[in-house]
Write a structure and sequence with these properties.
With 161 residues, the chain is an alpha/beta fold. It has one domain: Rossmann fold (3-Layer(aba) Sandwich), CATH 3.40.50.1000. Strands 3-2-1-4-5 form a five-stranded parallel β-sheet, with helices on both faces. Strand 4, helix 5 and strand 5 form a beta-alpha-beta unit. It binds magnesium ion and zinc ion (ZN). Zinc ion binds next to loops. The site of zinc ion has 5 residues, from loops.
């Protein structure tokens, strides 16, 4: 079974400018690509789990999200990170839709665990909101790190990683 590094997107991977739907507004948080690369070298599978209520709200469409995701993954791959579209899970619903994927619901993490055979107990979740951490705990992820929005994270900040 593989260990995973679950990452929230907005505020962890990219600077949270609010409903980021285009590459022009997508700015990687300092050091995040190095962090993912290091984690991958230690055997962690990177998996992105992101709430995208902007789709339900009509601020941008699924196609915009997909296009931006492809661009983001290309940038990651250019830095040596091994990742593809199957490692990105998003919830397109709104807060009142009652879905099972919007964090703090654990649906996206459980789906990823099922798809990749993840050892959740020995996996990590990094998020900038309590709902990220709650989703991880409800899914049974053993280790969590709540960072500040857009904060640079280093491996040494993850105690016991
Ligand atoms: Mg966030
Ligand atoms: Zn959802």
């Amino acid at each position: 079974m593989k260990r995973a590094l679950f990452l929230d997107r907005d505020g962890v991977i990219n600077v949270d400018h609010g409903y980021v739907g285009t590459k022009e507004r997508f700015e990687f948080v300092e050091g995040v690509l190095e962090l993912i690369l290091k984690a991958q070298r230690r055997g962690y599978l990177p998996i992105i789990v992101t709430n995208q209520s902007a789709i339900a709200r009509g601020y941008y469409g699924s196609e915009d999200f997909e296009k931006l995701t492809d661009w983001m993954l290309e940038k990651m791959q250019e830095r040596g990170i091994v990742i593809d579209r199957s490692q990105v899970f998003h919830c397109p619903h709104g807060p009142d839709d009652g879905c099972k994927c919007r964090k703090p619901e654990p649906g996206m993490i459980l789906e990823a665990a099922n798809r990749f055979g993840i050892d959740l107990e020995n996996s990590w979740m990094i998020g900038d909101k309590p709902s990220d951490i709650e989703a991880a705990k409800r899914a049974g992820v053993g280790h969590t790190h709540l960072c500040r929005k857009n904060e640079k994270i280093e491996l040494k900040d993850l105690h016991g990683f």
